[in-house]
Amino acid sequence: MQALSGRFRNPLLGVTIYDIASAAGVSIATVSRVFNGHPRVSCAARDQVMEVADRLGYQPHVSARSLARRRANVVAAVIPMLTNLFFVDVLRGLQDRMAESEFDLLVFSARTLDEVDVQLDRALARGRAAGVLVFSTPLADARARRLGHTSQPVVLVDSVHPDFDSVSTDNVEGGRLAARHLLETGARRLALLMAHPDSIPASDRKQGFTEVLDTAGLDADSLRIVHASDPLHHGYSEAAGYDAMKRLLHAGDRPDAVFATSDVQALGALEALATAGLGVPDDMRLMGFDDIMLSRHVGLTTVRQPMYELGRLAAERLVTRIDDPDREPAHTVLSPRLVVRGTTVDTTVARSLRRIQPVAVS
Amino acid sequence: MQALSGRFRNPLLGVTIYDIASAAGVSIATVSRVFNGHPRVSCAARDQVMEVADRLGYQPHVSARSLARRRANVVAAVIPMLTNLFFVDVLRGLQDRMAESEFDLLVFSARTLDEVDVQLDRALARGRAAGVLVFSTPLADARARRLGHTSQPVVLVDSVHPDFDSVSTDNVEGGRLAARHLLETGARRLALLMAHPDSIPASDRKQGFTEVLDTAGLDADSLRIVHASDPLHHGYSEAAGYDAMKRLLHAGDRPDAVFATSDVQALGALEALATAGLGVPDDMRLMGFDDIMLSRHVGLTTVRQPMYELGRLAAERLVTRIDDPDREPAHTVLSPRLVVRGTTVDTTVARSLRRIQPVAVS
DNA sequence: GTGAAAGCGCTAACAT
DNA sequence: ATGTTAGCGCTTTCAC
Fold it and tell me: Which residue from A156, A247, A267, B219 lies 20 to 30 Å from B74 (Cα-Cα)?
C-alpha cells in the first residue's frame, strides 16, 4: 500500500476520493461508485475502499457533490412570522420528515410579507436548494411568476395556487366551525377580528364564518368586522389582536362573541378584555384559530389546524416532487377541528368537554 | 454582440459566467471579479457585465462558488428539543443576525441528546457549513473531541467548554435569584424540580439555588429534589414536570414552594397541582426558568433568560470567528432577571409588581 | 468490474 | 485592468 499522494493535505480537513483511491489501490471512479451504492463494484473493492475510508475518516464534500450531480442536497423553507407559534409546530413536522431524507433544511424567516420576497430570492438562488417550501404567502401575479420561472420544485404550505403543489387546512370549513359553535353558545351579536385583509387564510375563515351567519338568518348588522391595523406579521400578532379589541370596545355596542382569525390575535384580545375589566366568557365569548400550544394553557376555545401534519405532509410532497418533477400539482387539504375550552362556555362545561375530547399531543 | 455560445443551455436554469462573459465581450475572470466586488475592474466593464447579467437573469451557482472558495455559504445550528419554546426565541435572534450576513441558516433539530450526535455529524459534514452553532448540549469527552477534530468554527449556546466560543446565561445566578425570591415570599419547605441530572444548565441552577438556601441556614431536610424520570427532551418537558410534581405530592409532606428548572416543567407541574385541586400560590408557590412566551400569559413567576439576545450574540460570535479562526475562545455570559408573577405571590401584588417591571418585548 | 478523462461553475494565482 | 489557466472534489460517460 503506497503512501498518500501529493494531494494529501490536512488529514482532518481534506481527505478526498483521491486519497482513498491511492490508499486503496483503486481509481477514484471506483471510490465514487462505492459511495453512491453503484451495483457494479466487486465486493473486494468495496470492502477495501470502505476500510480505508473509515480509517482516514473520509467524508464526501457536499458542495462538490451537488455541483457534479447538478442537484442540491438541501431544501429551503421560507417562513414568514416565525414568531407565530403556529410555525413552530409546522417546522417540527418538517424537520422530522426531512431528517429521514437525504436533504437538510435551510430556514429563511421573514418578519413581513415584503421580506418574504427577499428571502425567496435567497432560497431560489441557483444551485442552492433542490426544492422550496413556501409558507403562508399569498401568491399574487409577480410572486407566482417568480416561482414559476424557476425549475425548482415548489410546495406551498398554508396557501393554494393551481400551478404548485400545496398542503393546507380547510380554512373555510374552519370558519364555519367557529360560527356554528358561537351560535350554539347563544351568541347573536358577533364580531370578527381579521388579520390583514390580503391574508388568504384569514379571508377564507371569514368566508366560512359569514356564510354560516347568513344561513342562520342573521342580518348584516349583527356582524362587526375589525381589521388588523398593523401590517407587521400580516396582522397575526398579539399586538394586532389587542389593538383590534380595544377599537372594538371603544366603538360601543359590545358584541357578545368574537372570533379572531388566529390564536395569537385572540390572546392579544384577551388581554385587552382583561384590561377593560371584562370577563370571559361571561361578558364576551372569544375564540381563535390554530390551537397553538399556548391556547391549551390559557383555555382558549379555538379551531385546531393539524400543524405538525401540515409540515410533515409538505415535506413528503416536496421530496416526492423532487424525485418526479413532471407530475401534476397535487393539493392536499386537511380538516380543522373545533376545540372547546373555557373562553366560550362556562368552564365547568368546558372541563367536561375537554375530558371527552382530550387534547392531541402530536 | 454575439449570440450565446455553445455552453448555452436552459436559459432559466443555467446561465453561467461563460454566457455572461461572451455576451459582454469580456473574460470569465472579469465577470467573476464584478460579482465579487473586486476593486480592479473598469466601470465600463462592470456596467456592461451587470447589464448583461441582469438581462439574462444570471445568478451565481452557490455550490460551485463554495467549492472554489473552499468556504461554505451556510452555517448550521444544531438544536435539541425544538419543542421547547425557549429555542424559538433563540432561533429568532439567530435568524435576524444571519439575515444580515452572507450566510444562510441550516437547522438541525434533535429530539434527544443522542440524536444530537447524529445531527452534529450531518452538520459537520465536509464542505457543508462554514461554522456550527451547538445548542444546549453537554460536551462530554467524546463530543468535545469530535468538535475539536473539525476545523470548523464552533460556537456553543447555552453551554460552556474552555475550547470553544460560548454564549450562555449565568444559570448559577439564576438559581440564586429563584431561591432568594422564594425565601422572601416566606417559603421554608422547598422543592426543586430538576431536569435530567446530566443537564449542565439545570445543575448550575440547582447549585445557585442550594447555595442560597445553605447561606440562609436552612438544613438539608428543608429541600426536596425530584428528578425528571423521562430522558426525552432531557427532562425539559411538560410531561416531565407533571410527573415530577405528581411524585412530589404523592410522597406527602407537601413543600410550600417549588422551583422548576424550566418553564415547560413548571407548566406541567401547574397542571398536576390543578388536577390535585391545589391552588397557586396559596397552597404552594411555583416558579420556573426561561420566561417563554407562555409564562406571561399563564402568569408564571420565572427567571428570565435573554433568549433573543442569546441567539443574536451567538450568531455574531460565529460570524466573527469565521472571519478570524485563530482568536482565543471567548465566553459571553448574560445575566438572568427575576420576573415576578402570580404563581409565587398574591395576584394583586403581582399585578402591581408587573406594572413597575413591564415585560420586555424583544 | 474498472479506469481514464471530461466536465459541473466558479475562484484565484499568475501573466500581461 | 484584463485574460489565461489551473484547480476545488466529485460524478459520469465511455472505453476496455
Answer: A156
